[in-house]
Structure formats: structure tokens, C-alpha cells
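The freezer alarm interrupted the setup, so I double-checked each line after restarting. Inputs confirmed:
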Amino acid sequence: MLDQIARIADAGAAEVAAAATLDELRAFETRLLGKKSELNDLKAKLGGLQPDERRTVGLAFNDARARLEGAVESRRAALATAHRAARLDAERLDLTEVVAGRRLGHLHLVTQALERLEDVFVGLGFTVAEGPEVETDWRNFGALNFPPGHPARDMYDTLYVDYGEPGATLLRTHTSPVQVRVMTSQPPPIYSVMPGRVFRQDTADATHLPVFHQIEGLVIDRDITFAHLAGTIDAFTKAFFGGGFASRLRPSYFPFTEPSAEFDIIRPDGTFLELGGCGMVHPNVLANCGLDPEEWQGFAFGFGIDRLAITRFGVDDMRDLITNDVRFLRQF
Ligand code: PHE
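Predicted 3D structure, all chains:
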């Protein structure tokens, strides 16, 4: 009988260790340790043995049971761990993974417009430059020919940063300070565009956001004239919007350009889209950036990207751009 018990325990433990699933393990457990198990049948015969023989067999019987129970427990723990790992793996949401042929996400509407603008300007021979969002009053205004207290500063509802002298540090109100960075960090000729995020103290409504995007253009070379500016704006218009579109300039004022203009896009149906400002770089700006205005001339332009992006898709509320509602974003 001892042999028989040992055989049941050995075979049972091997079976349990090989159980492939929790269900299979549960079935083995019932068969090996349940009421109708082989061990239970043997136990019923214990009563027919001599007392000392009964003790030895009883101990072997308990050992076999304990061994099988231990095997079931350790197998159950191993299977539960594996089951949990498999489930976590199956339920994993990897938001960064790009699965071939399956679209999991895409660039924001404004980022798409920004990248396309960069592509068009790079195609026209421009390089791309960037600057920081926190700027000095000097680069955002001073070097651009806005002396302290100049009334044109009121065109920009400036957000100041509590850093350094009061009023010395701000969130850039336009991308024009990057012109100053480019002119003071490399010698001409310069043919650059400068995209980026800009900030104005403003309440968000359907047509304004306090945080928006602009792209700036700057050309500095010898013998640059207003005709180069008008031609560049027109070449850009046709490359970005299409051959049926044209551009026009209207006189305007900016402290950092002279003469200055606003530029509009003329749609094929004859309607206008007011896009941005431009002009010939003011001699004071060139001098502030260490360039001799007698030797170098240039032009600059700048316009908002967010409004351009929504116009293209017929979105009528700019706030939709920043609410992060996937039902909106998914459409573009
Ligand atoms: N920085 C001006 C603005 O934000 C636009 C501009 C850029 C005008 C370059 C002229 C030249 O209003």
C-alpha cells in the first residue's frame, strides 16, 4: 500500500506541474484530492490494517496529500502570474506604436499647416530658424525700433514674466524677435523663415486665441528691393494655395519695417483673406543688429498660422483647436 501511495503522489505531482491552464489544474485537483480520488479510496481501507501498520500508512497518506496540495498551490500561483501577464499584454494600449497600415493618430491641424508652410518656404530656398517663447523686451520691441513708451507697443497686449528688471522679460508677442536673433548670430545673406508660438493677453473667442502661431520671413542681402518682397509673397501664395490664387499689398505701419504693408490673398472667386504684415527692414533695425544699412537691405513678413489652418477646413471657432476633443481633431 505504501508503494501504491508513493506512485499516486509521484504521478499526480508530475501531472499537476504540467497543467497548462487554471481550468485543467482545477480538474486535476478534484481527481487527485477530491472525495472520489484514488487516495480517498485507499483511505477507506486504512481501517482494515494492524494498528502500527495503520500509523505508517496513515503518515504516508498524509505526506502524499500534503505533497499534492503543495504542487497544486505552486502551479496555481505560476499559472495566475502567466495569465495576468498575458492579459495585461493583450489589454495594453500603446499610444506611441505605429502599426503598419493602421492609423493610430496624426499631427494636429495647426502642426500640419506649419509643416506645409515650412516645406513651401524650404522649396523657395529659405532655411528654418527658431527662437525661445520667453524673450527680452529688447528683442521683442527695443531692437525692432519700438522705444520704451512707443504707442505701437499698444498693438500688442503683452504678457510680462516676473524675471529680472520689471518689464524686461516677456512672452514674445510675435515671431519678429527671432529676426533679431538670426541677424545677430550669422552674417548675411539671410533667407530664413521662423515659425513659432506667440502670446497675447486676450480672451479666447471664435476668432482669437491668447496663444497662437506665426511664421516670420526674413531676407537680408545686397540690393534687395520692395519688388523682391512682393514677388516672394506672390510666389509663396501660388505655391501654398494654388495657381488660381494671387496676392495684394496695402500700405500699413510697423515700427520695424519701412515702408510697411499688409498682405492679402486673393481667392479665385475674387474674395480676400487678410493674412499678415510685411515691409522693408527698417535701417534702425539693421543697425541695432550690427548690420550696416548702407551695405545690406532686406524685407520681412509675418502672419498667423492658426487662422490660415481653420480657413482651409472651414472651421468657424478657433477655440476648437485647443479643446482637445478627439471628435473634432480626428477630422483632419
Ligand atoms: N510681427 C508683426 C505682427 O505680429 C507682423 C510683421 C512681421 C510685420 C514682419 C512686418 C514684418 O503683427
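Quick read of the result. The first strand starts at residue 127 and ends at 128.
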